[in-house]
Write a structure and sequence with these properties.
With 215 residues, this protein is of the alpha+beta class. The chain has nine helices and four strands, in the order E-H-E-H-E-E-H-H-H-H-H-H-H. It has helices at 10-22, 43-46, 65-76, 86-119, 126-149, 160-166, 172-175, 183-192, 197-201, and strands at 2-5, 27-30, 54-57, 60-63. Helix 1 (10-22) runs parallel beside helix 3 and helix 1 runs antiparallel to helix 6 (160-166). It starts with a strand and ends in a 14-residue tail after the last helix. The structure holds glutathione (GSH). The site of glutathione has 12 residues, from helix 1 and helix 3. Glutathione (GSH) binds at residues 9-11, 38-39, 51-53, 64-66, 100.
């Protein structure tokens, strides 16, 4: 598999961490997000959405980060990361769709306002953050309910659903995600997801850096 990605972005980190969890080998083709390479030929011929990531495997071209993880898990047959049992798979597929349609867009507002805008010399807009707060708390409350009952989203071990749902919150401190009212969600992120080797291998820090500073 060849993965076209910039490891600093939410959906690219998701794929790189997910492929590591799955144990799927790949070659990384770097597409520089802040240089806008995702909007340029020849990349847009692979992904006409002009967004990253994308994957090729032989003559198969695939975009949508969660579809890439589903394909990779099935390709290598990792049934722990993406169980074949009908009900467990339906549960995971539900979370993958919900992440893409609801959770990512809500967390993304915090990423843009508190990280991207200040980094590019602008200022975050409190009105935009205020307008998103109710939606964020509604969605975080749904995850909170699930994570109060069990260690991982789909049971007792991590699956691609955990990686997909963690990715939009990957810079939660810098994003200033309001997690105080969602203790189980916060613990899942800081004590479980962030302890996974696949998460640590794909570390991204404040300033969208992949270089840990030496102290
Ligand atoms: N639903 C897509 C979303 C992909 C996406 O929005 N990628 C962002 C980076 S995380 C992007 O490349 N946006 C285009 C841009 O900002 O120019 C997926 O999950 O792969």
């Amino acid at each position: 598999m060849q993965i076209y990605a910039d490891p600093i972005t939410v959906n690219c980190r998701k794929v790189l961490a997910g492929l590591s969890l799955i144990g799927a080998p790949y070659t990384l083709k770097h597409v520089d997000y802040f240089k806008g390479e995702q909007k340029l030929a020849p990349y847009v011929e692979l992904n006409p959405n002009a967004s990253i990531p994308a994957m090729t495997d032989g003559d198969l071209v695939l975009w949508e980060s969660n579809a890439i993880l589903q394909y990779a898990a099935d390709k290598v047959g990792n049934e722990a990361a993406y169980p074949r049992d009908l009900r467990r798979r339906a549960d995971i597929n539900r979370w993958l769709l919900w992440e893409s349609s609801s959770w990512f867009p809500s967390c993304y507002v915090f990423l843009v306002e508190n990280c991207v805008k200040p980094l590019l010399g602008g200022a975050s807009d409190p009105a935009v953050l205020d307008a998103q707060a109710a939606q964020f708390h509604k969605l975080a409350g749904i995850l909170e309910q699930r994570l109060q009952r069990q260690a991982w989203i789909a049971g007792e071990q991590p699956t691609i659903a955990d990686i997909a749902l963690a990715a939009p919150m990957h810079l939660h401190g810098w994003q200033r995600l309001p997690l105080a009212d969602h203790p189980a969600l916060r613990r899942w992120m800081t004590e479980r997801v962030e302890a996974l080797p696949c998460w640590q291998q794909t570390w991204v820090g404040e300033g969208f850096t992949t270089q840990r500073s030496a102290h």
